[in-house]
């Protein structure tokens, strides 16, 4: 067992790394989307536009964060903070290395190893939804309220499929701890092979859960008012956006951990494998955004309840039957 | 299956590479008869072609040209005609670059040039005086080879 201050140092490092990943994910997304659409993407700020995230941040911080006079102040200010906090906290249980022995302490490859870490991630994700709902509600604007209702309906209905899709992995990994699941994948094949259907369901539910194209109805910037963050501006809006992107990173990290054997890989590169796989999954999300058009709202609901949920349930049941039979 | 085909299509675009023109650095050549900022012309002997008849101002649909004429005197001879334009102003923020002034001018004194980068920080700077219009344009915009479009450059643009 490591002393508490090592966890604290690791948490500080991981939070900062995730923030940097977020900043450069926005760059990567704009750049990648540009290339996929025969454009350059940002290329003015610094070489290859690498300073663009910093310029964006400076602009957001300096922008006036005004609030509607009818807004309910405390929840209005608290909502983006809650979203941001849960998004960052969820990353703490994702293992990114095998652990090292530094001096005479054993440093593990995750901030904290909770025996039910998988449940913790989903629980934190559900609390994060409160940020979106409360934010829209506290703005006292009908468009924000409608937007938050839309977001809430989508997130709640896809959370079911998301949680059910990992049940197969839990059965195969025989644990709810992400560390144990990764260790088990080190000895056997990555769980994407036996759980390919589960991976697909997880991927699609994950897109909806992080509200990205083609399931980005909470925002739908081309056709609707921005959604739950209509009345937000400046860095408060930035916090919502950050929370959304960090949720995406966490979800990709979870996907790498659950289905692509986490930090395992040839030549024992450790965290590098995790980062490479993470980037691969993130590129998948960007690619998807460049390719598929947005769904209609009834199609979204139909897909969630009539396709993903039965498939996820069947996948879990069949996995259980196979595990019991063999 | 057709959805998966879409992924192939989008991925192929990466290999094709971007097609964006990086504007301030690379400029696409203009069509030879592109209508940009106006300019006034002088005769080879230095006299202005404009005689201050105000026909351009009358033809202007946007009402952006202001001409105040004055008589030429033997010791102050500005134009080749009887009168000259004492004030000649074009408000570029109102101009719609239709080229009617060019058509209306009986002496080909005013033509539309090829310059299109005429944005300013101040609205007042958009009002071009006669001196500014008479001067050679500072910015050089590349022009497409007129032969491609089979459009001879009008004589009044090539010689004065």
What does this structure look like?
The complex is a heterodimer of chains A (326) and B (160). Chain A has 326 residues and is mainly alpha-helical. Helix content of chain A is 66%, strand content 2%. Chain A contains eleven helices and two strands; from the N terminus they run H-H-H-E-E-H-H-H-H-H-H-H-H. A two-stranded antiparallel sheet of chain A has the order 1-2. In chain A, strand 1 and strand 2 form a beta hairpin. In chain A, helix 3 packs antiparallel against helix 4. The longest helix of chain A has 33 residues. In chain A, 44% of the residues are buried. Chain B has six helices and five strands. In chain B, strands 2-3-5 form a three-stranded antiparallel beta sheet. Chains A and B meet through helix 1 and helix 10 of A and helix 1 of B.
């Amino acid at each position: 067992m490591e002393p508490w201050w090592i966890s604290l140092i690791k948490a500080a490092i991981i939070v900062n790394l995730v923030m940097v990943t977020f900043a450069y994910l926005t760059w990567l997304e704009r750049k990648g989307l540009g290339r996929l659409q025969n454009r350059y993407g940002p290329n003015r700020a610094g070489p290859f536009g690498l300073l663009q995230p910093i310029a964006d941040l400076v602009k957001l911080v300096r922008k006036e964060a005004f609030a509607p006079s009818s807004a309910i102040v405390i929840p209005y200010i608290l909502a983006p903070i809650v979203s941001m906090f849960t998004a960052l906290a969820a990353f703490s249980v994702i293992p990114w290395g095998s652990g090292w022995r530094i001096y005479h302490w054993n440093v593990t490859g995750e901030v904290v190893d909770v025996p039910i870490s998988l449940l913790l991630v989903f629980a934190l994700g559900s609390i994060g939804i409160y940020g979106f709902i409360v934010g829209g509600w506290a703005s006292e604007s009908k468009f924000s309220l409608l937007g938050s209702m839309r977001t809430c309906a989508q997130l709640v209905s896809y959370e079911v499929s998301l949680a059910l899709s990992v049940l197969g992995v839990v059965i195969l990994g025989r644990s709810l701890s992400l560390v144990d699941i990764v260790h088990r994948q080190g000895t056997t094949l990555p769980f994407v092979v036996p759980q390919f259907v589960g991976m697909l369901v997880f991927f699609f539910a994950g897109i909806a859960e992080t509200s990205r194209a083609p399931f980005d109805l909470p925002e739908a910037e081309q056709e609707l008012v921005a959604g739950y963050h209509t009345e937000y501006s400046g860095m408060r809006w930035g916090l919502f956006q950050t929370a959304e992107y960090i949720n995406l990173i966490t979800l990709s990290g979870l996907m790498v951990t659950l289905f692509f054997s986490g930090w395992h890989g040839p030549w024992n590169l450790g965290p590098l494998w995790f980062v490479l796989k993470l980037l691969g999954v993130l590129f998948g999300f960007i690619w998807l955004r460049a390719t598929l058009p947005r769904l209609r709202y009834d199609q979204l609901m139909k897909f969630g309840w009539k396709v993903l949920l039965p498939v996820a349930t069947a996948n879990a049941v069949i996995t259980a039957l196979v595990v019991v039979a063999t | 299956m057709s959805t998966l085909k879409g992924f192939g299509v989008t991925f192929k675009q990466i290999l094709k590479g971007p097609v964006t023109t990086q504007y301030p650095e690379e400029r696409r050549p203009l069509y030879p008869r592109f209508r940009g900022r106006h300019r006034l012309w002088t005769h080879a002997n230095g006299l202005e072609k404009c005689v201050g008849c105000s026909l351009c101002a009358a033809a202007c649909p946007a009402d952006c040209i202001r001409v105040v004429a004055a008589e030429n005197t033997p010791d102050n001879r500005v134009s080749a005609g009887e009168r000259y334009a004492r004030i000649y102003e074009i408000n570029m923020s109102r101009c719609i670059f239709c080229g009617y002034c060019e058509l209306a001018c009986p002496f080909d004194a005013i033509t539309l040039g090829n310059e299109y980068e005429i944005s300013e920080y101040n609205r007042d700077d958009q009002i071009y005086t006669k001196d500014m219009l008479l001067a050679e344009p500072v910015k050089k915009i590349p022009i497409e080879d007129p032969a491609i479009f089979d459009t001879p450059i009008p004589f009044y643009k090539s010689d004065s």
